[in-house]
Amino acid sequence: MDVKSIKLSARTIVGKKVALLRRKGIVPVHVYGTQAESISAQVEDQTLNRLLLEVGSNIPVSVEVEGQDGADICFVREVQRHPVKESILHVDFLRVDVSQTITAQVPVVFEGTAPGITQMGGVLLQNFQSLLVEALPMEIPAAFNIDISGLIDFEVTIQVSDVESPENVSILNDPDALVVRVTAPRIEIVEEEEEIEGEEGLEGEEGEGEEGEGEEESEE
Q1: Distance separating alpha carbons of residues 163 and 179, to the nearest angstrom
Q2: Span 43-62, average pLDDT
Q3: pLDDT value of residue 218
Q4: Where do the domains of the chain lie, and which CATH numbers do they carry?
Q5: Can you tell me whether residue 175 is helix, strand or coil?
Q6: How far apart are CA 158 and CA 179, in angstroms?
Q7: Deepest of 3, 22, 125, 131, by most Cβ within 10 A of its Cβ?
């Protein structure tokens, strides 16, 4: 597996004063996990942004902190962003033991074209954006690529048990859970409702006409 890397600087500024770092384009970072001591660090926001574009929460990262011996294999565990600007406020890296299994969410990526959509006008219904797996840190897949070209109609489904995974990777979701299928378009139901409403309107007009005729006869 191609492991991405990042180098952090030690951080002495903590608490509310970290706002001063952010104004200078520096993001506070926290490295924790295993039996080692937690580390407060920092890194330039541009460097961190480039890394986060390449890795998710399931891709291992080699993290080196200035002044520390060697590098640790970590995973991005939490990214805090500004609610309006969406700039990065803080990032947590989870340090792991590469000899021990961990759990992680692996994104689901669809490949191919579903005939149920292109030929029958159906809509793709996706129940999972990611699947929970257990594996050694260096064996966690980057994504599950699922071919949807077999979804030929509204009856065919792809379940968790249909998803292929590497030999040493266990998917922890319910095997019978639905991952994706093609459903019938809702527009057909809307058209039927409109037709029924139209018929009811005509019946109402006919009823009003009959009442009017009755009134004229009584006046005579």
Answers
A1: 9
A2: 93
A3: 45
A4: 4-96 (2.40.240.10), 103-183 (2.170.120.20)
A5: coil
A6: 6
A7: 131
